[in-house]
Design brief:
Length: 333
Amino acid sequence: MPQHIEAQYQEILNEYVKKQTEQNLYVGQNFSRQLILENISPEEVISMHKAAIRELYSDLPDVVWHSFDFLIEMMINYGLALQERQSLLKRQEELKVEMDLAANVQETLLKTKLPSLDGLDIGLLSIPAKKMNGDYIYFVSDYDGYAGVAVADVIGKGLPAALCMSMIKFGMDSLNSSHAMPKDVLSVINRIVEKSVDDSMFVSMFYANYDASAAKLTYGSAGHEPAILYRANTGGFDELEAKGLLLGVSPAAVYEEHSVTLGKGDMVIMMTDGVTEGRTEEGFIERDVIYELIEQKKDEPAQAIVQHVYDELERMQNAELQDDFTLVIYKKV
């Protein structure tokens, strides 16, 4: 402790004890700011106060001096706890700034336009569980009778996830063709993710290309949640399986490609695991529940079906989504 600080404090304290005016308090308050600038800890302030009191009132009983020693020990622990709390608050503020920036990156860079094709009705809903959305949807349409769609789920959060999504969008923009086939799209995006994104971050993706003239949907998957095919003539549901590694795992990954032809009223339901892995107090929500919700609104427009599924699953989970919710429906009309 600098001696001039101790001497100054003793003088200020002595003046206050003698006069006890507002001016004395004001001088003390200004002095406290000087202590902060000098990086004087709380326990050092108490030690300084004890020394000043001893100089001014040396005949005080021992119990008073012991009480000061006790307070000094308390302040040491208090100071450490306060520093830890302040460090935590600072980190939380930094994380908030990062999340705000990531959300702005998403909003600015990741916009996509819904295709408009005769005979195809599209429903879409993507709701983040928290501020940042780890899911991504990208549509490709050049008004030539084709409509491509990518549904992706980034394994990671915050700004790194947003930047990863921007790389995916860059890759999709570079393809810039709704004629591109799923296996080729996934291969290109896989190489971009593998080269450009941190090794700890991976992406699952389902990509589908719809040909309106043949009513045919061709699809592939990179470790993503299987899409669901609903057949209007039978009322049956089937999973559209396609093998393929997560994006970013290996540059040599090869992706399968399959096709289905859609009849009137048929639907392809694409989603992320936030839809299929919802939880209630009783456990996970079964897929049959999702099938039933779709069946209830099968004759409605695709957007109404999507909204109905979301509203009911949110209600079942007491309005608390466990994960990002993304659902896309292609419906043949």
